[in-house]
Structure formats: C-alpha cells, structure tokens
Design brief:
The complex is a heterodimer of chains A (about 160) and B (about 400).
Chain A: H1 2-5, H2 8-15, E1 28-34, E2 39-48, E3 51-60, H3 63-76, H4 81-95, H5 102-105, H6 121-141, E4 145-150
Parallel strand pairs in A: 1-4
Antiparallel strand pairs in A: 1-2, 2-3
Helix pairs in contact in A: 2-3, 3-6, 4-6
Chain B: E1 16-17, E2 20-21, E3 23-24, H1 35-47, H2 58-78, E4 85-88, H3 91-106, E5 112-116, H4 125-134, E6 137-141, H5 154-157, E7 162-168, H6 180-189, E8 193-197, H7 209-212, E9 216-220, E10 231-235, H8 237-240, E11 253-256, E12 261-263, H9 277-293, H10 295-314, E13 319-321, E14 333-338, H11 343-352, E15 355-356, E16 358-360, H12 365-371, E17 376-380, H13 387-404
Parallel strand pairs in B: 3-15, 5-6, 5-7, 7-8, 8-9
Antiparallel strand pairs in B: 1-2, 4-10, 9-10, 11-12, 13-14, 14-17, 16-17
The chains are: A alpha+beta (about 160), B alpha/beta (about 400).
C-alpha cells in the first residue's frame, strides 16, 4: 500500500525538488495554503508571449505536496496558457478518480496512488490550485497579479 | 487500579489496522468507548426510546429519569450542582454558548477578552466573533519557556478592561497542565469571569470546579469514553441565573405568547429542543466507568506512561518533543517533530504499521506559528494505553527514519 503512495519518482522529487526558489519579475505570485494541515507554498510564474516561460515554488510541505509541485513546474515550462489549463484539468481529473490521460500527464501518473489516501489528495493538489488561481487572476486582470489560494477553493 | 486487563472493555482496541494490531494513540482527538457506553446507547433506543420532560407514560418517565440521572452523575463527577450542568453538543458549543449569552450581555466596545497562546481554535474563534461584533479586543497571555504559560504576564495582560478570560486547562498540543487557580485569582481581582476549556483535562485528571476557581467549565463526552455529539457546560449558578437563553424553542420556555415568552431556569433555559438523550445517558455510563476506575488512578497511570514515553522518545536522535518534559506538569498529548520530516509523512508510515497518531496543526494554528513549525505529529495517551504500545511507537518511528533515509540528502 505504502509503495503506491511513495513511488520512487515522488521520493526523488521530494529529495531533489526541481524549480525550487523565488522568481523575480514573475507576473503571477500566489500564496497557496492547505488549511487542513497548515502547509503553505508560494508559486511564481513568468509569462512571455502567451507561454509559461518559467515557474518556481518555495515553502514547506510534506513529500507529496513538494513532489507534486516539483513535477508540475517541470511539465508546465513552455506551455501556452490553454495547454497549462488542460494539464491542470487532467491532473485534477485524475485526483477526482477519472481515468488518467496518460499521454498528457507523463510522470505525474506516479501521483495516481494518492487517490487511495483521500486525506492526502489536498497535499497533491495544493500547487495546482495555486497555479490555476494565478492563471484565472492573470487573465481577468490582464496583467501581473499577486493573490492567495487554498485547497478549499472551488476552482 | 488501571491494568492492561481493562482493554478487554474496549471492543475497538481489538480490531486490526492494515493487517496489524491497532495501536491507538489519538485519544486527544477522540477516545475509544467501553462496552458499557455502547450498551447504554443501544438500550435507550431499544428499550425506552421516548422524548424527555413531556410524556406521562412509563417509557417517557423512564427516559426522563435516565437523562436527569446522567446530569446528576456528571455533576458529581466535577463536584457541581446538577442545575448548573447544561448538556450541549460539545466543548465548541459550550464556548459559543457563553460567548453568545454571557458575552453579548456583558462585553462592550473597548473591553478586552483574554485567551492564551495555546488555545484550540474552538476557544479563540467564538471570542473573535464576539469581539468583532462588540468592538472589543482580544488579548493574549503568552506561552513562555518549555511550553508553560507565562504567569509573569498576568498583571500586564489581564486588567480593568478585561471582561472574560478563557483558557485551556490542558493543552491539546503541548500537553501543559495550566495553573488555573493563578489565572482565576487575577481574573476575579479585576472583575472578569474565567472560562476553562476542560476538553483535554476532564477526561484525564480529577477536576473539581470549586478547586479550579473558574466560573465556567466546558468539556466533551467523546474524549472521555462517551459518544460524540454530547458535551457539558458547567456555569456558576448565580451567573447562569442572570444569563439570557442561547437557542429559542421548545423545552426552554415557561409561557409563550406571540410577542414574547418567559424562560425556564437553568439548565432547561439553555437546552432548547429535544436534547441528545441517548448521548447524555451514555455519557452518564462513561462517567460511571471513569468513576469506578478512579480519576486519581487514571491520572497516575497516564503520568507514568508519559514518563516512559518521554524517556523512550528522547532516545531517538532528531526527535524533538514540544512542551514540558516533566510528567508532573503535563498530560498525555505529546506533539513531536522527527528531524525535518513532515508530520504527514511520519503519520502515514506509522499508520501503515497500525499506529494511529495525528498530524497537522491540531486546530492550534497560532500556537504552531509561534513555535515556528507548520505542523507536528502527535501521539496522545489514555487509560487503555500500555508501555508496549509506546515501544511499538518508537520502533515505528525508527521505520519512518529508515524509509526516508538515504532518499533525503538535505540539499533542498
């Protein structure tokens, strides 16, 4: 059972998080929180020509939330905003129990095991909710945004 | 005498979790229930289910007698008069009741409401709501060295503008047993009332309201071997007599007209509607169970378990216990951090071993912020726990370290 949750690739991202740190000049800056456990992450994204040029995160959390954020940033770089939204939809769909869109999700499939641990689903979705909130706010503001998001938000 | 033999009284302690014997170390969240409590619940519904204080037929009389007998048992348990014991849903509802009745009646703009830095959200948020409504301020008694209340700050924080002081008797995170009498003396010296959150103390210590010196005491049935959805608010009789009702409805009235009504005396004034009859009767059975064991014995058992647990846990490198380490000054809620591992990951691996601990902020975000930790794992002990279970916890924590060892190099 535990092996389904803590896949090697998840532990690897936890041990060696990719794209960790602040990002100066980011158009999107969101403080994401999971009120059920108190975890908080900051998500930064720099957008150029309708694409996510760079995306980084910092903050603290459990292995699942840190690995999910690390894997997300890796896959988001270079995506157009509609592509990014499609991936967010695919990931949230997988977490809700829908059959995963394997081709789109790639390594993120490893997080599928989290579904068997309902309390941990919010750990996995924290960074995704933050990015989605950032994209929503950016598109409605038509420019740089700073905001907050929580895993309780109904996005 | 508390011996491991009493574990036979608790059916749920014999289930397996994840194929392994359950080691239940989460009684600060909710306790397990002895068979006598389960029997009391079921026998009410099977044998004399009827509403209370209404019918004149035999079943209704029997239900009313049992419900009021439960109130007597609870009153005796805390050294109080039955008329001053109000049945509510739990500690949270008790504190909201005080805030919305006594609080609304007595707190005005510019007044202070004092809490401590180690409060559960349920002893903070109801006061915030009241303070915002009235233009009052929340002031906070700080936690000092080793997780003890800083009593040196009493005279500074509690002053002439203080109307209500509300504090936990025993912290659900640090385990600290607070010096309620010292706070009561200062609160009363300035004319304030003292509310005590006894959710973590009444199940674990002998508690007598007169010895505490408080004006209100709130606690929950489900943390003391009783069912969920039933709890107690005790209030000083002369204060309850002047308090307005909380909820309006049946059972709490004397005479009802279209424009106005008159209300009954305590406790009925504060128990509108059909109460949790089965819950109250089963709480009475839980009180019988605890009384037969003797609360002095329960406390002595837990103190010796805490002594053992702290000694064993302290042997683990990287393990940091929050709160006091002297068993005489603390209860059985032991929050800890294991290296830089996240509490969720610690609790998940322990759960796989059949060990139930809690992870998170334990409904005490301001305290965790002060301690500089986002979340902690918490093992909490009760009368049915054993030293063997603490040994299993220590072995489980060693497994947690092994699981993540080598995978974490620390270069984040």
């Amino acid at each position: 059972m535990l092996e389904e949750l803590y896949r090697e690739i998840i532990l690897d991202h936890y041990q060696h998080p990719r794209n960790r740190g602040r990002l100066d000049g980011a158009e999107i800056k969101i403080e994401g929180a999971n009120p059920s456990c108190g975890d908080e992450i900051s998500l930064y994204a720099r957008l150029r020509d309708g694409r996510i040029e760079d995306v980084r995160f910092e903050g603290h959390g459990c292995s699942i939330s840190q690995a999910s954020a690390s894997m997300m940033t890796q896959q988001m770089k270079g995506k157009t905003l509609p592509e990014a939204r499609a991936l967010i939809g695919d990931f949230k769909g997988m977490m809700r129990g829908q059959a995963p869109h394997e081709e789109a999700l790639g390594d993120l499939i490893a997080l599928q095991g989290v579904r068997k641990f309902p309390v941990r689903i919010k750990c996995a979705t924290l960074s995704w909710v933050a990015l989605e909130r950032g994209l929503d706010d950016y598109e409605s503001a038509g420019g740089a945004v700073e905001g907050t998001a929580t895993t309780e938000d109904n996005l | 005498m508390i011996t491991p033999a009493l574990r036979a009284d608790f059916p749920l302690l014999h289930v397996r979790m994840n194929g392994k014997p359950l080691i239940y170390l989460d009684s600060a969240a909710t306790s397990q229930k002895p068979q006598a409590v389960l029997d009391a619940l079921l026998s009410y519904y099977r044998e004399y289910n009827a509403n209370v204080h209404r019918g004149v037929y035999e079943l209704a009389e029997r239900a009313t007698l049992a419900y009021e007998a439960a109130r007597e048992k609870v009153a005796t348990f805390i050294g109080a008069r039955a008329d001053d014991v109000i049945f509510v849903r739990g500690t949270t509802e008790s504190i909201n009741l005080i805030a919305q009745t006594y609080g609304r009646q007595n707190v005005r703009g510019g007044d202070d409401i004092v809490v401590t830095e180690m409060e559960h959200h349920s002893n903070l948020v109801p006061w915030q709501m009241l303070a915002q409504d009235k233009g009052a301020a929340i002031r906070v008694l700080p936690v000092g060295a080793e997780g003890m209340l800083d009593l040196g700050a009493l005279d500074r924080v509690i002053g002439p503008r203080t109307r209500i002081v509300s504090m936990t008797h025993q912290s659900n995170v640090l385990g600290t047993i607070n010096d309620v009498r010292a706070v009561a003396a200062r609160a009363h010296a300035v004319g304030a009332v003292l509310v005590v959150d006894g959710a973590q103390s009444v199940p674990h210590l002998p508690v007598r309201v007169a010895e505490l010196g408080c004006d209100f005491l709130a606690f929950s049935g489900h943390k003391m071997c009783g069912p969920t959805g039933i709890g107690v608010l005790w209030g000083r009789g002369e204060i309850l007599a002047k308090m307005p009702p909380f909820h309006g409805g049946g059972e709490m009235i004397e005479r009802v007209e279209y424009e106005r009504s008159t209300y009954r005396e305590s406790p009925h004034r504060f128990e509108a509607g059909t109460p949790n009859i089965a819950g109250a009767i089963a709480l009475g059975a839980a009180v019988d169970y605890l009384t037969a064991l003797g609360m002095e014995n329960v406390r002595a058992h837990e103190e010796s378990l805490v002594r053992y647990a702290i000694a064993q846990l302290s042997d683990l490198p990287d393990l940091k216990i929050l709160g006091p380490t002297d068993p005489a000054t603390r209860g059985g809620a032991i929050a800890f951090q294991l290296g830089d591992l996240h509490a969720h990951d610690v609790a998940q691996i322990l759960g796989d071993e059949g060990i139930a601990v809690r992870a998170g902020h334990h409904c005490a975000q301001p305290l965790h912020r002060k301690l500089g930790v986002p979340s902690t794992a918490r093992a909490s002990l009760y009368l049915y726990n054993t030293t063997e279970e603490i040994d299993a916890l220590v072995r489980g924590l060693e497994k947690v370290r092994a699981f993540f060892a080598g995978r974490r190099t620390g270069d984040r």
